[in-house]
Write a structure and sequence with these properties.
By secondary structure, the protein is an alpha/beta fold. It has two domains: about 110 residues, YjeF N-terminal domain (Rossmann fold); about 280 residues, UDP-N-acetylmuramoyl-L-alanine:D-glutamate ligase. It contains 16 helices and 14 strands. The strands form two sheets. Strands 7-6-5-8-9-10-11-12-13 form a nine-stranded mixed β-sheet, sandwiched between helices. It has a five-stranded mixed β-sheet with strand order 1-2-3-4-14, with no helix packed on it. The protein is elongated and about 85 Å long. It starts with a helix and ends in a 7-residue tail after the last strand.
Length: about 425
């Protein structure tokens, strides 16, 4: 290709000589298979490129970025990356270095794609989030119980409940101590409330309520007081299906055998962030941020349930084995309460009949895309979880358009991944 360029009259300059005045840098020094620290003279070339302070378009990926691991060896920051056939793991782990990513068709047969990440897209999500039937009623739209809200943490239950309603749940109950129940009843008239001590054994009314719900979301604002693990296990013993989040994951770490037994009996979705993942699955935690795919898949196989490992990117694993990757979202989600919103959305979708891994992937994509919509209004810096809940209504309308009038294909472009909206 270099010989063709020279024959066509493209000007060639030495990396250490004078350069002409330019307005754009195309970084095509190394390809997608490059590993490790670039060898001389490439570092000197990259230093000169950085000194230009010009927009960079990277081919495959910025030089110095290991696309297999996402490790950056002083790679330049590209505003646009153009890659062939599919996203690599490094594109998803090093979002800041890659900028906007455009995937183009270079004719690679599908069977040669190997273990490249399978990204959740709006098209995939829109066609699974089907409209309600005309004769739908509140019982058929999913009954969700949010268990948690220790004193001082009722807001977590409130966020999860609002998110469940935003995702279309027909009935949402809360199960919290009396102090939190009073606050929730005053703030959320849509929410049906019941008091509990967050201890075991469950009284007959509480046990009947847990059994009545299609899905229990347990963990938002739960706390870690003495007896909390026994309460979680008692709720799981009476539940039909569950989303386990936050403190419920932490207190269950010493009780993995009971957790596995629950997973063998009913649909179960775990939603840990990396810290909770390390507590629950320490044997798989060493690489959970550099290789979340392997860590999530191994943990899902061990625990025999679906597992949503939050992060950049988010990975949803299932023992089947199924791996889905979600890259939607922005730094505005890095605030307390975002996980409660995710748990509420996932609980509603699971209650509406989606498989655990599909509900998790749909919920993570919805959370990220709603956050992107909300950030365009208020910026990622000032984004709050309730802004994300409010933006869900716009997302559902957007996905409805995807179902009826999907975007026209634009070959050779296969996919476009916008850079995360960063706080100004």
């Amino acid at each position: 290709m270099a010989d063709r360029a020279r024959r066509d009259g493209v000007r060639e300059v030495p990396h250490d000589g004078p350069w002409p005045s330019v307005g754009l840098v195309v970084d095509a020094v190394l390809g997608s298979g490059a590993r490790g620290v670039p060898r001389a003279p490439i570092p000197a070339l990259l230093a000169r490129v950085a000194d230009l302070h010009l927009p960079i378009v990277a081919i495959d990926g910025p030089t110095g970025l290991d696309l297999a691991s996402g490790v950056s060896h002083e790679a330049p920051v590209a505003q646009l990356t153009i890659t062939c056939n599919a996203l690599r793991r490094g594109h998803l782990l090093a979002r800041d270095e890659c900028g906007d990513v455009v995937v183009v068709d270079a004719g690679l047969p599908a069977q040669l794609a190997g273990d490249l990440p399978q990204l959740v897209t709006d098209a995939w999500a829109a066609h699974r989030l089907t409209p309600f039937d005309a004769d739908a009623h509140k019982g058929r739209r999913g009954r969700v119980l949010i268990a948690g809200g220790a004193p001082g943490m009722s807001g977590a239950v409130r966020l999860a409940a609002r998110a469940a309603f935003a995702a279309g749940a027909g009935l949402v109950w809360s199960l919290s101590p009396a102090e939190s129940t009073a606050l929730l009843a005053a703030a959320e008239p849509d929410l049906q409330t019941r008091s509990t001590t967050l201890t075991a054994p469950l009284d007959s009314e509480t046990r009947a309520l847990v059994a009545q719900a299609d899905v229990v979301v347990i963990g938002p604002g739960l706390g870690r007081a003495a007896g909390t693990a026994e309460f979680v296990l008692a709720v799981l013993a009476a539940a039909k299906a569950a989303v386990i989040d936050a403190d419920a994951l932490t207190v269950l770490a010493p009780h993995r055998a009971q957790l596995i037994a629950a997973a063998e009996r009913m649909p179960l979705l775990l939603t840990p962030h990396p810290g909770e993942f390390r507590t629950l699955c320490p044997e798989h935690a060493s690489g959970c941020e550099l290789d979340p795919w392997t860590a999530a898949a191994a943990a899902a196989a061990d625990l025999r349930c679906a597992l949503l490992l939050k992060g950049v990117p988010t990975v949803v694993a299932h023992p089947s084995p199924t791996l889905r990757t979600v890259a939607a979202g922005n730094p505005g989600l890095a605030t307390g309460g975002s996980g409660d919103v995710l748990a509420g959305i996932a609980g509603a979708l699971l209650a509406q009949g989606h498989a655990t891994d599909v509900a998790g992937a749909l919920a993570a994509q919805a959370l990220g895309r709603a956050a992107d919509i909300a950030a365009r209004r208020c910026s990622a810096r000032s984004l709050r979880p309730m802004d994300v809940v409010e933006a869900c209504r716009d997302l559902w309308r957007e996905w409805a358009v995807w179902r009826t009038t999907p975007p026209v294909p634009c070959p050779p472009v296969l996919f476009e991944l916008a850079a995360p909206q960063r706080a100004p």
